[in-house]
Amino acid sequence: MLTLGWLGSEDAQTGGVSKTGVHANLLGLADARAIYREGMGCTLVFGPDNLAAIQPPPVPANAALPWPAGAAPGSPQPALQHELESILAADNAAGY
């Protein structure tokens, strides 16, 4: 029997990283957890949580700069954007 439980009810604090997620096991044999960490996303954990001490990278000082210097998406290159739009239009016309 598959059982699921929310770790959010426990909401453990480990190494300064708040963890919430789900826990599942199959007949007590296969045990796994999915833990969400702010700034890092969701990770699957099998066994001990070795990622608890990892901190997300700092937010850039000027987040308005394009990635990787900041968090803003870069501006598309017009020639590549036009080519992509042509490919998508051809695919749509062909029924894909």
Instruction: Tell me the overall shape.
Output: flat
How many DSSP-defined strands? Answer: 6
| Total of DSSP H or I helical runs spanning 4+ residues | 1
Calculate Rg over CA atoms.
21 Å
**Main beta-sheet annotation:** 4 strands, antiparallel
Main sheet: strand order: 1-4-5-6
Strand content: 25-35%
SSE-based structural type: alpha+beta
Mean pLDDT: 75
Order of helices and strands: EEEEEEH
Helix content: 10-25%
End-to-end Cα distance: 40 Å
Unreliable parts: 5-18
Q: Can I get a quick summary?
A:
This protein has 1 helix and 6 strands; from the N terminus they run E-E-E-E-E-E-H. It has one helix spanning 78-93; strands spanning 2-6, 13-14, 17-18, 20-26, 30-37, 41-45.
What does this structure look like?
β5 (30-37) and β6 (41-45) form a beta hairpin. This protein has one helix at residues 78-93, and strands spanning 2-6, 13-14, 17-18, 20-26, 30-37, 41-45. It starts with a strand and ends with a helix. By secondary structure, the chain is an alpha+beta fold. The strands form two sheets. The protein has a four-stranded antiparallel beta sheet, with no helix packed on it. It is flat, with a radius of gyration of 21 Å. It has one helix and six strands.
What is the element layout, followed by pairings?
Blueprint: E1 2-6, E2 13-14, E3 17-18, E4 20-26, E5 30-37, E6 41-45, H1 78-93
Salient structural properties:
four-stranded antiparallel β-sheet, 96 residues, alpha+beta, 17% helix, two-stranded antiparallel sheet
